[in-house]
Specification:
The structure holds two protein chains of two kinds.
Chain A (H helix, E strand, L loop, with lengths): L5 H11 L3 H23 L1 H17 L10 H19 L3 H14 L6 H12 L2 H12 L4 H8 L3 H19 L1
Chain B lengths: L2 H12 L8 H46 L2 H9 L4 H22 L1
């Protein structure tokens, strides 16, 4: 994984020392991508809740971050774990179906029939497939970065992305 | 639909939106962080207080055991067994008084 950019490292070190202004700047810098990632997984409302929880968790564990990856990757990894924990708690099939339906409505603005179809295709993917696709295709992360964020082996990640694309293509055909 | 076409569609649909930082969200996170910090400090203070009080109680108990082993005291206690309870209650009330005053000062 790539090390974090210098600006992040400086702010992160200040924040780890208790500087809340520095942490606020980190939130300002990273909220857009983190919330977009989590909204694709959980829908906009729950995605925002999870993003807030992610930042809180990050603040509480800043001293554990060694800086050997990008700060944004570390945040995404925390967000992903929170999402997985949330899913584990909400095992009820009905609630999952509701969430999928909400996601299908909100993942993409239905400006064209193709986009709506894509939103439906994405909503049908397994969460890990959707997450892998969002990270690699939407956010331009390398396969290595995405694998580290999702805590799966690189080979598994590549297979997951391939499978997700295949499912999308089949749905869009 | 070929690979490059699908990649393009996915990239467009899944890319994070281009927009400036969402100030209300940043403020909300900042408030949550401030609240978490207040709670952390309160909890640390509570743990410190509990440890201090446990140590104080242990010290008092140790002192009482030590004093009760002095031969004159143990003889006096053996002669008047009813004395031990009023003495313990008095000590307890004294501790409550000191604790209450400490709490009021804090």
């Amino acid at each position: 994984m790539q090390p974090e950019p210098d600006a992040d490292a400086v702010l992160r070190r200040r924040a780890a020392g208790g500087d809340r202004d520095a942490f606020r700047l980190l939130v300002e810098t990273h909220e857009r991508r983190l919330r977009a990632f989590l909204a694709q997984l959980a829908g906009p409302d729950l995605g925002d809740e999870l993003a807030q929880e992610t930042f809180l968790k990050a603040w509480q564990s800043l001293h554990q971050f060694r800086g050997d990856s990008k700060f944004s990757s570390w945040l995404c990894a925390i967000g992903w774990r929170l999402f997985v924990d949330h899913q584990r708690r909400e095992r009820s099939e009905g609630r999952r179906r509701e969430a999928a339906a909400e996601l299908a409505e909100t993942v993409a603005e239905p400006t064209a029939g193709e986009r709506l179809d894509l939103a439906r295709a994405l909503a049908r993917l397994e969460p890990v497939e959707r997450a892998a696709l969002v990270l690699c295709e939407g956010h331009g992360r390398s396969h290595g970065e995405a694998a580290a964020i999702l805590r799966i082996p690189l080979g598994t990640l590549k297979g997951t992305v391939r499978r997700a694309k295949l499912k999308c293509r089949e749905h869009l055909r | 639909m070929d690979d490059s076409e699908l990649d393009l569609i996915l990239r467009e649909a899944l890319a994070p939106p281009e927009r400036p930082a969402d100030r209300p969200f940043v403020v909300r996170v900042d408030r949550a962080v401030a609240e978490a910090e207040r709670y952390r400090r309160w909890r640390a203070g509570l743990v410190r207080q509990l440890i201090t009080e446990a140590l104080a109680l242990a010290a008092v108990a140790g002192s009482l055991v030590f004093i009760s082993q002095v031969s004159e005291v143990s003889e006096a206690l053996a002669a008047t067994p009813g004395l031990i309870w009023p003495a313990l209650v008095a000590l307890f009330l004294f501790w409550r008084l000191v604790r209450g005053r400490g709490g009021a000062l804090a």
